[in-house]
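Holo prediction — uridine-5'-diphosphate.
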Amino acid sequence: EATAAAPHVVLLSSPGMGHVPPVAELARRLHDALGFTATVLTYASSDSAAQRAFLSSLPPAISAATLPPVHLGDGDLPAGAAAIETLLSVEAERSVPAITAFLSDLKSTTNLVAFVADLFGAATLRAARDAGGVPGFLFFPSNLLMLSLMLHLPRLDADLGAGEFRDLPEPVRLPGCVPVPGADILQPLQDRASDAYRWMVRHGERYRDAPAGILVNTFDAAEPAAAAALRSPEPWRPPVYPIGPVIRHHHPAAAAAADDATGCLGWLNAQPEGSVLFVSFGSGGALSLAQTRELARGLELAGHRFLWVVRAPTNAAAAAADGDNPGESYYDGCRSKAGDPVGFLPAGFMERTKGLGHVVPSWAPQTRVLAHRAVAAMLTHCGWNSVLEAVAAGVPMVAWPLYAEQRQNAVMLCEETMVALRPRVAGGGGEGGLVLAEDVAEVVKEVMEGEKGEAARAKVRELKEAARKGLEPGGASYETLAKVVSEWKGAGQATE
Ligand code: UDP
């Protein structure tokens, strides 16, 4: 409960289980370490059972509220056809009046000292201003490479002329960041004629002047040169504050009591230490049918223990009608379609891998799996939450990017941070490529038992340690957040 004196923050999260947890964890950190009360504000479109369960597990000092629904089906936004980035951006834009009203109300009943919006919410910072001058900050849930791309996007867009990013002869170079080939740049930027592209440029423009500051879910040791570049003030953009990793919190008591509905933890308990590859593609990632089968055969060939969160293939409906579809592309990974995921695995796979692997449909308790002593490595789609969770657990990765900014994350992890290995992609890394079973087996063996895997494991353990130290008093991320909130408290004239 908010008392008259406790400083209060409102944090607005974009829809989705890749977005809500880090925002809510930031709220928890502001409460636990710094004495704030908070409201986590979500959109009407983002209500789900998983989200409700997650939000209700937060301490009582953090309340949850949902915005009223906004209309998302006008002529400029054909229902069903719009890209996810467009939908999230339009929902944010159209929610500004409701957010303004919400903040004005809270301002009269609590000691409201700041409003924080996440990556698609730069437009909503106007609501903080309109509600009576509450400072508006951005919480950027990805890394500095991605933030730098967004901040430089208006210029990069102008420089592209008539071409696409993938046509650039040279990789994109951002200050302090690993050079990224154009084809690996953020997926919605791969088609300049798309609505999603225009929205990303508009967000980039707003990032440059809307927020009073940008909190970033990364830490200095993970991106030292980019952190040095972005920590130094520039007149053309807000100050940038690396405060991460902000990842899902473990309550040891709750974890022990929680049931293990998927059987993942029970199965892991029976496996030797450091023997299991965890395979997961984030909250919604899925592969084509052909790629699912290559991955299955590859895991079988590699002969290492695995725990695989299987999704129905992206082309599940077509696959069910036509049988196999070998032309399907590795790059085609996107949100999973309905269907029983296990039914799409090769015939006899479950029986043959009985002693070796555990397959769970759709969802695993990922942070608890990564923390388990039996897990040696993770094959990941490189969503930034998953990467931070793997790093915090000291687990090296195989990079298998699908969408969003995952391909550029993979470049960073494999070529700069050196905590991940890449499989060979037959037919090139772009569209039309497929990772064949033999190449899956090779990269799995390398990460589990090879020299490169050992080097990645040593590196990720260093990063784990650096991340832990950064979050303690005196550490870079801890002190950075403390500095930001002391300004909020000062502005709100809170008693300490
Ligand atoms: N996650 C999970 N179990 C799963 C798949 C995902 O708990 O089976 C969690 C994972 O721990 C992470 C989030 O969902 O916190 C996924 O976020 P990420 O940024 O990695 O990817 P996205 O879902 O946004 O693509």
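READOUT: Residues 451-470 form the longest helix (20 residues).
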